[in-house]
């Protein structure tokens, strides 16, 4: 089966600019997750979707981050405006059930 | 402070040596998972342990879940350069359904 697809792989932007990441989960996986992984740290959950509804967004900085999952398939994560501390790898994952997360390769964001 | 603490943070060994990575918490977990992440890639699930005291083996890798379900360890026998990577433990707290990651252990196996 095809894996979790993410794009772009790399992005460099200036602070205060906006950026968007895209994720296409494994077909049939109802649950989709966005994680932020700062260099040298483990991934931190930003938001979890079940189909097209938000299950958990308690750690999403809602003043600048937004995410949507229209039609319960693809998802986009947006940052506007970006700050230097947003430099990280943004990982998308999907799962059929709670166990067995499959991660994409991530988008490495550098804010300068 | 992180819910899951991993130690050591970095480990450098020679090919053929053994190593152990630890994952500890003061909280009880319904299950724990171990992932390996290579540079430029996402984490890949290695194993899930769900029962206190459980031991699982995956070729040269041995995973153990503590009796109290608060800690876990990963032991690699006769490490090879291909074992190099970032090892992450992650767990579902007993009181919650959010997969939480530890800070990771970076392992370097030198030929």
Structural account:
The complex is a heterodimer of chains A (112) and B (111). Chain A is mainly beta and 112 residues long. Chain A has strands spanning 5-7, 10-13, 19-24, 31-37, 44-50, 53-56, 65-68, 75-79, 88-95, 102-103, 107-111. In chain A, strands 2, 4, 5, 6, 9, 10 and 11 form a seven-stranded mixed β-sheet that branches. In chain A, strands 1-3-8-7 form a four-stranded antiparallel β-sheet, with no helix packed on it. In chain A, strand 5 (44-50) and strand 6 form a beta hairpin. The model of chain B has no long low-confidence stretch (mean pLDDT 93). The A-B interface holds A 4, 33, 35, 40-45, 48, 56, 91, 93, 98-106, 108 and B 2, 4, 6, 31, 33, 40-45, 48, 88, 90, 92, 97-104.
Question: How is the secondary structure organized here?
Answer:
The complex is a heterodimer of chains A (112) and B (111).
Chain A: E1 5-7, E2 10-13, E3 19-24, E4 31-37, E5 44-50, E6 53-56, E7 65-68, E8 75-79, E9 88-95, E10 102-103, E11 107-111
Parallel strand pairs in A: 2-11
Antiparallel strand pairs in A: 1-3, 3-8, 4-5, 4-9, 5-6, 7-8, 9-10, 9-11
Chain B: E1 5-7, E2 10-14, E3 19-24, E4 29-37, E5 44-49, E6 55-58, E7 61-65, E8 71-76, E9 85-93, E10 100-101, E11 105-110
Parallel strand pairs in B: 2-11
Antiparallel strand pairs in B: 1-3, 3-8, 4-5, 4-9, 6-7, 7-8, 9-10, 9-11
